[in-house]
Amino acid sequence: MRPRSEERPACPNCGARQAIPILYGLPSPAMQEAADRGEIVLGGCVIAPEFPIWLCPVCEHRWGRLIDREKHWEM
Ligand SMILES: [Zn+2]
Fold this sequence. Notes:
The chain is of the alpha+beta class. Helices cover about 10% and strands about 15% of the residues. The chain has one helix at about 30-35; strands spanning about 20-25, 40-45, 55, 60-65. The protein is globular. It starts with 19 loop residues before the first strand and ends in a 12-residue tail after the last strand.
């Protein structure tokens, strides 16, 4: 499972449309592989509602809030 490019929001800091979703929780093997390919970022096992959900690989800005994520990522 991977996000389609049109689902990626523009970075509020630099405007690049290359946002990488930050996923939290214990990573499954599929999640680990996706992280190794740079498709997702593993945010760790500690979760808080205000944690950011997007990482911009261009300027490394992180934004969004976990509590606002509409889609739950299952990998
Ligand atoms: Zn950016």
